[in-house]
Amino acid sequence: MSPTSNALLWLLLGVSLFFVTFGEYAIFIGLCGLAFLAGTLVIIYNFGKQATELDMPEISLVVGQLGHGGIEKVKSAMEPTTKIKNFDKRMTGASVIDDVLKEVLQFAVKDYIKTWYRQISDHDSFLVDIWQCVQKVIITFSNRSKEIDWMPYFTQQLVDDFASHIRLYRRAAEKTGTAKTEDNAIALENAFFDMEVEMENNMCRDLVCLDPQAERQYLQDLSEVLLYLLLPKEDFHNKPFRYIVREVLVNGIFMPTIDLLSDPDYINQYIVWMCYETSFTRETFLTVIRCSDCMEELEAVKEMVDSDIAKWRSKDTGGSDDTTIKQNLNSLMFLKNACEMRMRRLKSGPVSADQIIEPENLRNLYVLSLDEIFSNNFALQSFIEYVTSRNGQQYLYFYLNVEGFRAAAEQQISEMQKQSLTSVTSLEPDLEPLRNAAKIIFDQYLSEKATSRLKIEPEFIKDAVQKLKSKMLSEDTFDLVQARVYQILHMSYYEDFLQSTSYQKLLGELGLNSTSAKAEEGDNLSYRSIEDVPRIVWCKTEDLLDPQLEDIGSDTVSIGSGSSATSVGSPSADAYMQVTVTNSGVLTEKNGKSYAIFFITVKKKDPYSEQEDGWDVYRRYSDFHDLHMILTEKFPELVIPSLPSKTIVKNMSESFLEKRRKDLDKYLRYLMKPDLIQNVSGLEDLMNHFLHNSVWEKHKSEFSRKMDTIVHPLKKGIGDGLGKVFTQRNIDQSKSREIMNQMKVGAGLDPEAGENIPLRIMLLMMDEVFDLRHKNQWLRRRIVAILRQLIKATFGDKINRKIVEHVDLMTSAEQMAEYILAFKNSFWPNGVLAEPRQPRDEATKMRTKVLCKAKMLGSVPDEVRTLMGTDAVRMGVARVFQMFQHKTLNKRILYVVLEGVLVTLFPDNKFQAIFRKLHSRSKRAEKVLEAQKAGTSQDSQLRKRQLKR
Fold it and tell me: Does an H or E element contain 433, and which?
């Protein structure tokens, strides 16, 4: 049978069974099923007809544009438009950052993209592509940031850049004066950028700071480089997309952000927000008012005071609050009088110091003795400046240097006496370093050929000569001469100093001038006694002989006893090698030359050996130094700890040798680490050779030969530097200061200060903010010694760790999330785009400036005021504040920070050369380069002429 007949038979069978089963109801059920089917078909027909009528115009348009070959494109156009592909939305790898960052991106897409895109299309694929592109950029940026160690930048380069910026501003202000006029501001900015060319080695940022078009071009070029590094390749090679993104970055992000951050009013508000509320005190506010030289500031404050006076007077109706209201009114009236007094002073013109100090006030001055002046840093600075103005500084420098010599001699002779008592063999004390120092003082001040010869009686000089020639040099070598110099200082300079305006100013700085309390009406100043000011800390022998010497531990071991130093090496069950620097001593040769030696105990057990071998080796410090040079040359990739620094003059004291023994023991302990020995090929053989019981042959490596050309001249310079510790050399001082001024601040730091983060930061800020480097070099060394002792007393290593921990916290994922969250809350408070900032009136800006100066001045610790002096602190704070009032200069430091971050972030992409090329468009830089080329061509012509001759 055919399939058709079979189907009919099955159909008839089904119908028959249906009627048999349902009987008379079969017809009714059948009619219901047919009605349901018909209704379904009608609904489908009507829905399809309506959809066709709506989509037909678009489909006809697409078909008309594409022609007969657009079937596939028509098909894709008819697909659902709301379909979004699923993709991985992770970006930085830290969920705490990703969550906040996604919210920011969502808000940005909603308010900056969808507002115009939804007017064009409802298709979401463009939004998805934008999201994926931003996600890839963030992933690339975050991966790059994770590989960077930000510690050197934040603790060294950033501080150095900011301090150098202050130096440029200070020099420009000194050159152009302090007048607050528009022409003076332009002259100051021109002088600033002229000096930047010298400091930055023929690179100047004047165009990007002064010319908006040049700034836009610079940011466009920089954006092109960043897009090349961060964008995916397919997006970067899409030129229309790249140009759009570049313009959005430049005109929508970079320029508005830089314009905002460089606005002086914004910086003032930010400083006010950063400073603690407790930093704003009555004293600092009145100080700012009385020292203000801006009439607009005083008028703005007076306007607000008048408004407050009117409000309080409206409430002065008696009652229980009458006392409080009168007190507030009295305070406001006092402030108003202070403003009016300062305004009258400004209108009357500049006032000299002689006019400010009234002669009758000199009768009530507090008298400081000469010894009190010598023992106080700030008083000594004032006295030095006064004596220098009268060309008598050689007497004062001689007195101070003899004090330093006596302190060093007492300590060193005492150490030598202890050493001679504890030593088994009788050793003659080595007084040659002290004798050389004494000769330097004599040659500088007392000899007939002295450049700063003192005019004193010959019998005093003869006494000093006899003591210098004696075999046993003592600390009283210059006592008679110093006593005579003290008399000269007292009679010729000290008594006149007490009658000078400088002394009146000094007492005001120390809070000892009773008349200063009555200089202004109703002003109560807080006094400090002279004992509250820190005394001068005379340097110790270790500081004189080795400035980089610092104690590592508190425990000391005598030279003659064995040390309990920790064993060094790689012990194991089968084989080990233990190395310990156990002792130190002084060896004297037949010719009288002595040097320190260090005893090394070595214990070694070879594999599969039951017996332990042991021997002692003695090495000099120079042997360790030679080993260190070989390690540095042979294993440049190896991180080697720093070797204990060399001393300028021999130091054989017990404490110094014990400290050096500990340092060398730690040095060997690091080199003998098991993992280091196993992973560094050739290190074990070199260490075995160094620790073998034989004479260590000096290895004049290539590294040392190269360094000899630098070390030998430096030795002479360092020797002269030792003389500077005892003598104040003024030869070519102004020239050397000018050279240092043209360099970046970090270039003039001592090596020790560069390694110690807190001291480095303090010196950088102190030198440029308070201008201490250019006031008096002797006083600066004293304050540096005080800072070093303060840091040492307050656990400098812990301060360093705190700084490291703070930088780690600043760059941690949690803190980054906080930054992004703060950005989101400021731009989208409660999820709504913030309204544009309302412009602030000039009076409000002026009052913000006054508040900013008051809070900055109040934020300076009292210890710094006491150490530096109130007037120096006030001028330093005023210098920093005035620097921030120049928008052009603020732009410059922002660009310096931006460039430093990019150089740190992309160390392998030659950003330094890129920036130098971008800033070479400056006419200032071009002039310098042309002058250098002209000078080079002249030199070459002169050489050719000489060769022809």
Answer: helix 432-445
Q: CB under 8 Å to 541, separation ≥6 — which residues?
A: 408, 411, 412, 415, 651, 653
Q: Which amino acid is at 307?
A: S
- Helix residue ranges, H only, 147-157: 151-152
DSSP H stretches of helix in 640-732: 654-671, 674-679, 683-690, 702-726
On whether the CB atoms of residues 569 and 577 are closer than 8 A, the answer is yes
Strands, sheet with 613-620, edge to edge from the N-terminal-most edge strand: 568-569, 576-588, 594-605, 613-620
> How high is the pLDDT of residue 883?
92
Q: Give me 544's structure tokens.
A: 């004189």
Q: With a cut of 50, say whether residue 505 has pLDDT above it.
A: yes
Nearest by Cα to 437 from 463, 413, 462, 418: 413
Distance CA 508, CA 370 (A): 18
- What are 900's two structure tokens? 């430093």
Q: How far apart are CA 782 and CA 836, in angstroms?
A: 53
Whether residue 787 has pLDDT greater than 80: no
Helix spans in 540-646 (H): 541-545, 621-634
Say what angle helices 757-769 and 158-176 make with each other, to 10 degrees: 10
Name residue 577's beta-bridge partners.
604
Instruction: Indicate if the pLDDT at residue 946 is higher than 80.
Output: no
Eight-state DSSP code of residue 776: -
Cα gap 178→185, rounded to integer Å: 9
Residue 307 burial (CB count, 10 A): 10
Which residues does residue 613 pair with via DSSP β-bridges, in sequence order?
604
Phi, psi of 815 (to 5 degrees): -70, -35
pLDDT in tens, 343-355: 988 887 654 434 4
Residue 342's Cβ-count burial label (10 Å; 0-12, 13-18, 19+) is buried
* Nearest-angstrom CA–CA distance, 571 and 604: 9
Please check whether residue 540 is in contact with residue 411, taking contact to mean a CB–CB distance below 8 angstroms.
yes
Q: Does residue 149 sit in helix, strand or coil?
A: coil
Shortest CA distance to 477 belongs to which of 489, 488, 487, 463?
A: 463
The residues near 535 (Cβ < 8 Å, ≥ 6 apart) are: 375, 376, 377
**Are the C-beta atoms of 395 and 454 separated by less than 8 Å?**
yes
DSSP 672-696: T-HHHHHHSTTHHHHHHHHTSSSPP
Give me the helix-helix angle, 870-883 and 757-769, nearest 10°. Answer: 90
CA distance 792 to 799: 10
Whole-angstrom CA distances from 201 to 739, 922, 925, 929, 938 are: 13, 13, 9, 10, 21
Residue 789 scores a pLDDT above 90: no
Burial class for 325, CB neighbours closer than 10 Å (0-12, 13-18, 19+): middle
E strands in 762-869? none
What tokens does 752 get? 């020790």
Beta partners for 19?
none
The burial of 108, by beta-carbon neighbours within 10 Å (0-12 exposed, 13-18 middle, 19 or more buried), is given as: middle
Neighbours of 156 (CB within 10 A): 17
Closest CA to 919 of 197, 211, 205: 205
The reported pTM is 0.58
For 344-403, give the DSSP string. HHHHT----HHHHS-GGGGGGPPPPPHHHHHTBHHHHHHHHHHHHHTT-HHHHHHHHHHH
613-620 and 568-569 beta bridge pairing: unpaired
386 CB neighbour count, 10 Å cutoff: 21
Tell me, what DSSP letter sits at residue 457? -
Least confident among 135-149, 249-263, 456-470, 556-570:
556-570
